Amino acid sequence: MPACENAMSDFVIETQGLSKRYGGKLALNHLDLQIPRGRIHAIVGANGAGKSTLFRILLGFLAPTAGSSRLLGCDSQKLTTALRSRIGFVNEEHTLPGWMTVKDVVAMQRRHYPRWNEDAFKNILGNYHVLPEQKVGQLSRGERAGLNLALALAQSPELLVLDEPTLGLDVVAKRAFLESLLYSNASEECTIIYCSHQMEEIERVADNLIILERGELKNMSPPDAFCERVRYWIADMPFKGPEQHLVPGLLQVQRIDGLFHYVVIDQDDDFADFLRAHGARSVQSMPVSLDRAVNGFLAKNHAAPAAA
Ligand SMILES: Nc1ncnc2c1ncn2[C@@H]1O[C@H](COP(=O)(O)OP(=O)(O)OP(=O)(O)O)[C@@H](O)[C@H]1O
Asked: Domain 39-56+88-221 is classified in which CATH homologous superfamily?
């Protein structure tokens, strides 16, 4: 099959039965993932869920054990330099040559990328007090993050991958980064993949929430729709609550001041009847934040060993 038979694919990322085994460890398990063009897609997962492995395979740096993957319609194992130049990448390390001045880095990038957009660059960098003659190594972490975002967006990428871009930034720098991204209209011009463990960021920026768990796809929906699947229940039960394995959809349970606090997924109002049947004198239910919903979901299997 030609490497780019489907270069105008509706999907920026497409995997079919993608698996990666490292010795006895299965990092990706028959992953079928289709990410449509446009908007901001968050990818979340606990440590070791397989996110880095997925990106290494997608970018052609690692071969899968089984299955296939395509990036911007092209076979990941056959990506050309021209295709890679259509992808922007910002990660937590903000790896730019520290000894170069900002203006020299910008000149280098301007020469390298034929679709360089000076306005996009200035729009983002204008949010930061960065001087052209400053050395990159002298910039603060937040300024370096802003410069990296400006450089990535100025190359007019079709796909922009942001991998924990705000890790290590303080609250002010984080907010500046997110606002630069949101006000840039980047999500109208390219597809953004946002990998982060910070749910408040995802809640703010993401249109689509993709959850990976042990190399498998567990959710693909708007963040609000995922929140609606999860509910918080408080039950006043004078005796021992039901055995945990009997509680339907259980993500988390805690006993605080004699009250049972449950976080459950995919349960309707019948859950109240279940609690009453186990002796609850009163029950109360409330919605949860994205942070609680996702972290409850990811923590559910945390202690169990990974399947090989
Ligand atoms: N080179 C390797 N050799 C052996 N095992 C590996 C290798 N790289 C990754 N793994 C294992 O594969 C699994 C997935 O790792 P991966 O780095 O893809 O996860 P991740 O979701 O990116 O994690 P994190 O959020 O911690 O960066 C982990 O269990 C990890 O230990």
From this structure: P-loop containing nucleotide triphosphate hydrolases (3.40.50.300)
**Pairwise CA distance, residues 239 & 205, whole Å:** 44
Question: Sign of torsion, CA 155 159 164 166?
Answer: positive
- As separate numbers, helices (DSSP H) first and strands (DSSP E) second, the chain gives 11, 14
What's the gap in Å between 265 CA and the centre of ligand 1?
Answer: 27
CA of 103 to the centre of ligand 1 (A): 37
pTM of the model as a whole: 0.89
Beta carbon of 52 within 6 Å of any ligand 1 atom? yes
Residue pLDDT, tens place only, 6-35: 556 789 999 999 999 999 999 999 999 999
Q: What share of the chain is helix, strand, coil (3-state, %, to 5)?
A: 35, 30, 35
Question: What is the whole-number distance in angstroms between the Cα of residue 226 and the centre of ligand 1?
Answer: 25
Q: What number is the ipTM of this complex?
A: 0.97
What DSSP designation does 128 have? Answer: S
Q: Is 27 in the pocket of ligand 1 (CB under 6 A)?
A: yes
User: Which class does domain 226-299 fall in?
Assistant: alpha beta
Instruction: State the Cα–Cα distance between residues 286 and 263, nearest whole angstrom.
Output: 10
